[in-house]
From TrEMBL:
Its cofactor is [4Fe-4S] cluster. Its EC number is 7.-.-.-. It comes from the Bacteria. Part of a membrane-bound complex that couples electron transfer with translocation of ions across the membrane. The gene is rnfB. [4Fe-4S] cluster 2 binds at residues 137, 141, 147, 180. This is Ion-translocating oxidoreductase complex subunit B. Keywords: 4Fe-4S, Cell membrane, Electron transport, Iron, Iron-sulfur, Membrane, Metal-binding, Repeat, Translocase, Transmembrane, Transmembrane helix, Transport. [4Fe-4S] cluster 1 binds at residues 49, 52, 57, 74. Pfam families: Fer4, Fer4_7, FeS. The complex is composed of six subunits: RnfA, RnfB, RnfC, RnfD, RnfE and RnfG.
Amino acid sequence: MSQLWVPVVIVVVIGLIAGLGLAIASILLAVPKDEKAEAIEEMLPGANCGACGFSGCSGYAKALAHGEAKPGLCAPGGAEVAKTVSQYLGLADVAVEAKVAVVKCLGSYDNTSDKMEYEGIQSCTAAAQLAGGVSSCRYGCMGMGDCVQACAYGAIEVCNGVARVDPSRCKGCSMCVKACPKHLITLVPLKRQAIVRCSNCDKGASTNKVCKVGCIGCMKCQKVCEVGAIKVENFHATVDPEKCVGCGKCVEACPRHCLAMLE
């Protein structure tokens, strides 16, 4: 019977020594808490989207606590979070302009066609490596949803082969902008303004062959704009959001219907 106690005692002693070692290590190697950073992190939305330029909300909170970053970089939090953080840090309020993502393409299955059959990985980034993608328009959306996967707010969906953004859900974090290999998605100020829903910069005749609604650079929108907010360069119209007053005249004048109003 006494022989059974020997291994039991050994195991108990080893356990006590190991436990004591862990206890000492936890004290010596403990990372001091940054209460200021933790408090700021609680104010952030917790999306960890990286739109602020840091690894996540924790990284941004630490930078704010140590004066290495300014409030207002959190796009999902917007003006409300920027104001809360500024007040906590004793800083002046920072103006934050709300922005929304816009997909500059209308190349749906109804408006364009595929130039080949693609059976590879269902990823826009992967497909773009093969002759510029499946669509007959080399500038067009491939509709495989890389932007959908990147959006943490469910603001994007692919409809009829083209990505579409729901402005009411979009937080302006820009993750979809980074995910699009065709650079079709951009952030614009959330206000009433004209948006060119096309990225094709080829000549009108070439554009007309690959898309029914692509911009052909006809300049009709530029001619009717009374504030000089639209310019046509490289056979493609561009709207300056700072100048656009949202009158909608360019939308009515566009024969290709690739201009739309962002409400």
